[in-house]
Amino acid sequence: MIITLEADAAKEDLGRVLELIKNHGLSYKVQEYQGTFHKVIEILLFGDTKSVPLSAFEGLPGVLRVVRVSQKYRLIGRHDDSNSPFVRGFTANGVTISEDDVTLFPGLCAVDNEENVEKMFQALHALGIHQTRMGAYKPRTSPYDFQGLGKDCLEYVFRLADKYDIRLISMEVTAPHHIEEIRSALKETNAKTSVMLQIGTRNTQNFELLKAVGKAHDFPVLFKRGMGITLEESLNAAEYVAAEGNQRIVFCLRGVKTHLGAPHRNLVDFAHIPVVKRGTKLPVCIDPSHSVGSMRVAPDGISDIFHAVGQGIIAGADMVLIDFHPEPEKAMCDGPQALRLEQLPQFIAYVQKVRAAYNECKAIFQS
Ligand code: PEP
Ligand code: MN
């Protein structure tokens, strides 16, 4: 059960609610976070709440809403609460990720040197894109593969981001201390840019990392679906982040691991976009690069990665995370799936066309 208080609820109102919870022998957690318009106080009830009537709390002063939660992911979930409209998404440092448009995050899978970071940012700036992806901490299958430059590259990544008006950088963290390294580097460079903490597919159920990211309320989160677990398990894992009070989460589909996906790197799972949207309040991102894993071109002249982008956007994706590199053949990580910088205008044009088609498709069903 979740009890949401009115925006102007008094301390005594909260006190009365907690008193009643204790009388019912239930445990609880009070959570405060900044909603789109005002501060929200929610009380999460644990234990056997089935026998407690909603009306017991609904009648109390200062209580806005009481929702019985059937799913385990109570905070990110949408539940059967159709009377309370919500805004899917958020704005972070001037970058909006919502259902109003598709927000593009083209960038380097892994930072390899300063020159390539600058080339990438220059290309984005020329096309008016203020968001990117930049991997500094790379989880790799083999310990002998390039693991990313770690904190050593952060200074120039943030400095160059400011130079080219890049406002939000999706950056994976693989250990809790990476969050502090990023926070310190942003402070030391006095950066205007900001970071979206990325949870990679290999860490989807690294619960201590999820709790640490959940406590880092100053950063929004890009949460990748686990490649070898069910969607339901991944959504429960995303709830760990929300349960620590960090509600600015985007859920990212990136394909699932199965030999049945071959010759693609993973089996594209973008048909799950409507499932995630029906079940949760989260905006949905697609990562066609890690899904497909190669730049092969189909007989129609469109590459498999672009086809996957199209599939995601036509299914309502709100964000696209995609690998680019100035020289994919020299990239230290995932070069075979990286698009060339020269393909950036083509990518944008393609996204715009498919998004327009998506809007037209929606209109068919709304009329
Ligand atoms: C990445 O985006 O760089 C990455 C490693 O992706 P995933 O966690 O989906 O494999
Ligand atoms: Mn990669």
Secondary-structure element string? EHEEHEEEEHEHEHEHEHEHEHHEEH
Query: Radius of gyration in whole Å, from Cα?
Result: 21 Å
Percent helix range: 25-40%
* Ligand types: phosphoenolpyruvate, manganese (II) ion
Number of extended strands: 15
Structural class: alpha/beta
Shape: globular
Oligomeric composition of the shown chains: single chain
Strand content: 15-25%
Q: Mean pLDDT across all residues, rounded? A: 94
Task: Walk me through what this model shows.
Strands 7, 8, 9, 10, 11, 12, 13, 14 and 15 form a nine-stranded parallel beta sheet that branches. It contains eleven helices and 15 strands. The mean pLDDT is 94. By secondary structure, the chain is an alpha/beta fold. The protein is globular and about 65 Å long. Helix content is 33%, strand content 20%. Helix 6 (207-215) packs across helix 7. The protein binds phosphoenolpyruvate (PEP) and manganese (II) ion. Residues 109, 290, 333-334 line the site of manganese (II) ion.
Features:
367 residues; four-stranded antiparallel β-sheet; 11 helices; binds phosphoenolpyruvate; nine-stranded parallel β-sheet; binds manganese (II) ion; single chain; alpha/beta
Produce the secondary structure layout.
Blueprint: E1 2-5, H1 11-23, E2 27-34, E3 39-46, H2 54-58, E4 63-67, E5 89-92, E6 95-98, E7 103-107, H3 114-126, E8 131-133, H4 154-163, E9 168-172, H5 176-188, E10 194-199, H6 207-215, E11 221-224, H7 231-243, E12 249-253, H8 273-279, E13 284-286, H9 288-292, H10 304-314, E14 319-325, E15 339-340, H11 344-366
Parallel strand pairs: 7-14, 8-9, 9-10, 10-11, 11-12, 12-13, 13-14, 14-15
Antiparallel strand pairs: 1-3, 1-4, 2-3, 5-6
Helix pairs in contact: 3-4, 6-7, 10-11
Bound molecules: phosphoenolpyruvate and manganese (II) ion (MN).
